[in-house]
Write a structure and sequence with these properties.
By secondary structure, this protein is mainly alpha-helical. It has a domain at 4-36. Helix content is 39%, strand content 0%. It has helices at residues 4-8, 10-17, 20-36. The longest helix is centred in the middle third of the chain and has 17 residues, at 20-36. The radius of gyration is 21 Å and the shape is elongated. The model has no long low-confidence stretch (mean pLDDT 82).
């Protein structure tokens, strides 16, 4: 008999062994950690979509700052 670990690996096998309620609670906990670490729930832009507008204003960066800027253009 093939074990779940042989098919999907140890980590996923442990996940599949959890009940649906326990998986739901663990997912909630992981999302909280993701948000606390600066993750965003904003979707990534779909550049392949016919509705994609490259000139549309972008969303904020994951850390909430303005983004990258050039500090120096000449050589040191």
């Amino acid at each position: 008999m093939i074990s779940p670990e042989e098919l999907v690996g140890e980590e996923w096998a442990a996940w599949y062994r959890l009940s649906p309620v326990k998986r739901w609670r663990e997912s909630e906990r992981l999302w909280e950690i993701y948000i606390k670490l600066g993750g965003s729930l904003d979707p990534e832009p779909d550049t392949q979509s016919p509705f994609f507008d490259p000139n549309a204003p972008g969303t904020r960066t994951a850390d909430g700052r303005l983004g990258m800027c050039v500090l120096r253009r000449s050589r040191v």
